[in-house]
Amino acid sequence: MISTDRIKRAFPPLASALRETLREGYRRSDLRHDILAGLAVGIIAVPLSLALAIASGVPPQHGLYTAFVAGALIALTGGSRFNVSGPTAAFVVILFPIAQQHGLGGLLVATFMAGLMLVAMGWGRMGQLIQYIPYPVTTGFTAGIAVVIASLQLKDLLGLDMVSGSDHFIVRMREVLSAVGSVSVPEISLGLATLALLIVWPRLRLPLPAYLGAAFFAGVGAWLLKTHWPDLHLITIADRFQYTLNGETRAGIPPLLPELHWPWRLPGKDGAPLELSFGLIRSLLGPAFAIAILGAIESLLCAVVADGMTGKKHDPDAELVAQGLGNLAAPLFGGIPATGALARTAASVRAGARSPLASLTHALFVLAAILTLASLLSWLPMCGLAALLLMVAWNMSERKSVLRILRVAPRGDVTLLLSCFALTVLTDMVLAIGVGVVLGSFFFMHRMSKVSRVNLVGEGHPAVPPGLPGDARFYEIAGPLFFGAAERAMTVLRNHDRSMRAVLLDLSAVPTVDISGLIALEEVIDDLNEAGIFVALCGAQRPVLRVLREAGYLKEHGQRGYYPSSEAAVKHLTEILRENGTPTTRSEDKDQQPGLGKN
Fold this sequence. Notes:
Blueprint: H1 4-10, H2 16-24, H3 28-55, H4 61-77, E1 85-86, H5 92-123, H6 135-158, H7 169-178, H8 185-204, H9 210-228, H10 237-240, E2 242-245, E3 248-251, H11 278-310, H12 316-329, E4 339-340, H13 342-350, H14 357-372, H15 374-377, H16 382-395, H17 399-408, H18 411-426, H19 429-451, E5 453-457, E6 472-478, H20 486-489, H21 491-494, E7 502-509, H22 515-530, E8 534-538, H23 542-550, E9 560-563, H24 566-579
Parallel strand pairs: 6-7, 7-8, 8-9
Antiparallel strand pairs: 1-4, 2-3, 5-6
Helix pairs in contact: 3-4, 3-9, 3-13, 3-14, 3-16, 4-12, 4-14, 5-11, 5-12, 6-7, 6-16, 6-17, 6-18, 6-19, 8-9, 8-16, 9-16, 11-12, 11-13, 18-19
């Protein structure tokens, strides 16, 4: 019967960050700091959520629904005290093609599937595996995402008359160039003015967040221009998006709570409701996996940054489960994918956040904005939102890290960076990460193959055991023997001295061996045995000794044997070389080998 304690150990605890905060003691002053931090972040999140939803190819209210539903649920159940979750710019590269190909319903179904994957990743204790993605890979695809996001904003920033809106970078840029003649002077003027304000805002040292100030400027500018010049070509949210209430079509953002819907009953690309089928799930499996992988990477990187800013520690597996739950709940209420938002999390920490209640406050502020400010938010111009996202793309471009890697990193890391960047821009992020991880693994194995080596230790060296017979040779094997390094390391043994009659292999400096390393070692030993040379192994560490035991080295008879120490091996070699010219002795029994007890 499975015990309760075993079940608890098997699954990451929910709300670990909130429970830990309350266990340490939560005071009224902490609540005040959390509320103020949450309000500050909520002010930032409202315009960004609108802009990110539009950039993802869906109506703006779906970004607000995401920040409210997923942001609140992840805050209450997560493993990081400070993560603020919601729609992020990194998702735009994935979500825009999904929305173009499958419509809103398909995007929400993919989000739901990604939530299931994230929960499985957390329950599978995969939170620690994310750290094995090489830094040049994450830097390359982040910089590539920034370029793609920026290219997606050119249409609205310039007020271009483009119809197709391709999700392929090269095609999209060709369309932008061909439509340059349709530039709208009012939109490019207001958009560039908003962008300029975002650039100079930090120097103004104003108490309001830059994104709020820029959104307010763009909204007021659009209202003034459209009030005095109604025929002016200036597209706002209300001009582009509509909603239906009580059978009446209205413009802008609905001032309503999100309604519960099954995602697969929402409209697809053709406007008709989707039908849940195996074909639909199969077509969305790849995009859902991309959402899950990016969501895991972004949320855990965000938590690591927050830990560095606060000195606290997060639970990566609990955070993955919470992110999964958030992405399961959000599409039921019209929300798109959510993950930890680095800029909003950093702003929350700087504003004095003490617990997940700050992120919960941010989500409640977004809800209040939906219910009370929808009509005002509908005045935001598309060119102003494009300017906001251009600044987001600039901030996430990792330009300093990219230049540093290009300047000082080894050639392999530079190749990783450029490959992931190019693949992200020209193809998709999943392929970029996959190729990056595989290339990174190859480069790592190549480096490790130079670390693993076999050295012939000459007479007089302190490592050579005393009493070693003159017709025996002592080799020291150092470094891990795995599939990328074993064959290279065994080259020295293959070129052995034909006059020797015995070889002593010291394994004390081998930390680990896999099946490829074991087979390479066995092949070399077989070659030596065929040449009439006895092979003795000694000094293996516990992980290596366990592999040797499973392979039968501790019981094997013939021209090979294992010994617990080099002294025991030398003693046995001396005896068998003295007795006969061709050794036929067996390895020592396990019971005669001190130190070979249970492992």
